[in-house]
Design brief:
With 165 residues, the protein is mostly helical. The protein has one domain. It is built from five helices and no strands. The longest helix has 35 residues.
């Protein structure tokens, strides 16, 4: 059976890439008066999805860790796990900032907090890059995917066999 972790991690990584663009665009539109302040809820909702996806990625990574340890040394797995935890904690911090920007009463304080959240999304993007790079090293350099190969090689496919038959 294929591991669940690689299927889950793409959501938080994709959101980590998108959030600097989304939050800066929303903040600019809010600051210029093109969109009302309440549209910042989009940033909060997407950040919630990033945090939830990050949590799921950590949990599935822990579940898949034992199988990967059969072919990869533990320090390499721990480096990836530590990078994933740092990304999750960073995303959680940015969630607090995005939520605070929505909840604060004063307009200047809310916009300032939103600006801090935008900067925070860049930090989370950096942390996501590190986690993804460490995960890629596990698979492509250290052979973690080989832990999921079947013990018995599949039977050869006849030369005249076609997938659509």
């Amino acid at each position: 059976m294929l591991p669940l972790h690689p299927r889950i991690v793409h959501l938080p990584i994709a959101l980590a890439v998108l959030m600097p663009l989304v939050t800066s665009g929303l903040l600019l539109a809010w600051w210029r008066g093109w969109l009302p302040r309440r549209t910042w809820v989009v940033a909060v909702a997407l950040q919630v999805a990033l945090v939830a996806g990050g949590f799921a990625a950590l949990r599935t990574g822990e579940a898949d860790e034992h199988q990967a340890e059969t072919v990869v040394s533990e320090p390499f797995i721990e480096a990836h796990e530590d990078a994933g935890k740092a990304m999750f904690l960073g995303a959680l911090g940015v969630l607090a900032l995005t939520g605070a920007a929505l909840a604060l009463r004063g307009e200047a304080a809310a916009r300032g907090t939103a600006a801090l959240a935008v900067v925070g999304t860049l930090g989370v993007l950096f942390l996501a890059w590190r986690a993804g790079e460490a995960g890629g090293r596990l698979v492509y350099v250290h052979g973690a995917a080989s832990a999921y190969r079947p013990a018995v090689p599949p039977a050869p496919v006849p030369a005249n066999h076609h997938e659509d038959d």
